[in-house]
Amino acid sequence: GKYRVVSTKSMPGTRWIRLLTDNDCRLEICTEAKTILSVDDILALIGDRCDAVIGQLTEDWGEVLFSALKRAGGTAFSNMAVGYNNVDVEAANRNGIAVGNTPGVLTETTAELAASLTLAAARRIVEADQFMRAGLYEGWLPHLFVGNLLKGQTVGVIGAGRIGSAYARMMIEGFKMNLIYYDLYQATRLEKFVTAYGQFLKANGEQPVTWKRAATMEDVLREADVISLHPVLDKTTYHLINPERLAIMKKDAVLVNASRGPVIDEVALVEHLKANPMFRVGLDVFEDEPYMKPGLADMKNAVVVPHIASASKWTREGMATLAALNVLGKIKGYPVWGNPNQVEPFLKESATPPP
Ligand code: GLV
Ligand code: GLV
């Protein structure tokens, strides 16, 4: 292989490996057993000669690593994730390194996990499962694990991009919920979908669903029965959910986060969960992964899973494939089956990779 490409982790599937090795690359996959590599570990991997790196969202890609990659002759870095808050894109560009991400292939898988968390929280699935396994079930009771009905209620979406819109469609079509959303951009296709579905329901003699684009995020928090967070994490969305905003949400609202942990002030969330037993959350991400803030693990009104929103086989293989294509597109100077997903300045729509 002419080009030395390093992957900081083993990734699902073999397609991404074949793509690289069939296209003049010598691939080195890090075999280090520890879950999260340090900057020093990655510096050692880059070494004196490295054309491109495929990295993970748990790694801190800043000036130190990008200048080392530049010195090693590198020109490309691909994050195996759609979110790239772990990447200092300016530092990469200063060092002449193109940055890629893996949007598109994880949209539906991530939205389905957010929908799963919504149902699990609303219907108290995990609490009920633990009750069952603990041998506490003594027979049906009218009050046993009573939760929230979603039908006819309002789903609030903060950040109606690819994932937020896919989630909204699932909740609207699946559970006939009304939509209120907040985004800097108008979600035109989503609005059209809700309008058309509403007309379909009406034509069938059912209550139509409705949509509303909120003028402020507070309007969503006040009005919605279920709120799902789908923003990009940056300075403007850090602690977007803070004590003031928790306070205006309905006392029995369901809050879901499958975006990035720091979007929620997690210490404030734990306090809110303690004070409001009917308020429920479903969390895929945490402020300080892999840790949870003190007290969260004890809250029965929280469903917590370890950052698995994109974890379907199809999607993870697709992410790995896209990450390899990003790297190839840059180092070989051609698009393999489309344009590499280069991050600048906004995420671009991507095609779905061939099966
Ligand atoms: C996962 O969290 C991703 O951003 O792809
Ligand atoms: C509950 O199981 C019912 O039959 O209502």
Automatic annotation (TrEMBL):
SUPFAM superfamilies: Formate/glycerate dehydrogenase catalytic domain-like (SSF52283), NAD(P)-binding Rossmann-fold domains (SSF51735). This is glycerate dehydrogenase. One of its GO terms (molecular function) is glyoxylate reductase (NADPH) activity. PROSITE patterns: D_2_HYDROXYACID_DH_1, D_2_HYDROXYACID_DH_3. It is found in: Peroxisome. GO terms for biological process: oxidative photosynthetic carbon pathway. Its main location: other. The keyword Lyase does not apply. Pathway: Photosynthesis; photorespiration; 3-phospho-D-glycerate from glycine: step 3/4. It comes from Panicum virgatum (Blackwell switchgrass). It comes from the Eukaryota. Its EC number is 1.1.1.29. Gene3D superfamilies: NAD(P)-binding Rossmann-like Domain. Residues 16-334 form the D-isomer specific 2-hydroxyacid dehydrogenase catalytic domain. It catalyses: (R)-glycerate + NAD(+) = 3-hydroxypyruvate + NADH + H(+). GO terms for cellular component: cytosol; peroxisome. PANTHER family: 2-HYDROXYACID DEHYDROGENASE-RELATED (PTHR10996), GLYOXYLATE REDUCTASE 1 (PTHR10996:SF257). Belongs to the D-isomer specific 2-hydroxyacid dehydrogenase family. Keywords: Glycolate pathway, NAD, Oxidoreductase, Peroxisome. Residues 116-309 form the D-isomer specific 2-hydroxyacid dehydrogenase NAD-binding domain.
